[in-house]
């Protein structure tokens, strides 16, 4: 069985390196958001309420990681579409 020159086994997934960078960015944003949320709440509280500061830190970490995750997913989708368009243009020529 022969394959036609126009068929390709290219995956629609973005490159592995780009996905790894996206995961690292999400984790880093979560850590930074958590630290900032904890620090701000810890400064606002005068009686040493570490429980509330911890809860605010966790909430801030979730929000920061979620925001960066949305941007990362949109970026990876755009990369995939860009590569698909470029592959289609290369096949046309």
Question: What would you say this structure looks like, in words?
Answer:
With 93 residues, this protein is mainly α. The chain has a domain at 34-92. It has helices spanning 16-44, 50-92. α1 runs antiparallel to α2 (50-92).
Give me the secondary-structure topology.
Layout: H1 16-44, H2 50-92
Keywords:
mainly alpha; 2 helices; 0% strand; 93 residues
Mean pLDDT: 87
Poorly predicted regions:
none
Number of alpha- plus pi-helical segments:
2
- Tell me the span between the first and last alpha carbons: 26 Å
Instruction: Report the count of strand segments.
Output: 0
Q: For the report, how would you describe the main beta sheet?
A: none
The structural class is mainly alpha
Percentage of β-strand residues: under 5%
Helix content: over 70%
Order of helices and strands: HH
Brief digest:
With 93 residues, the protein is mainly alpha-helical. It has helices at 16-44, 50-92.
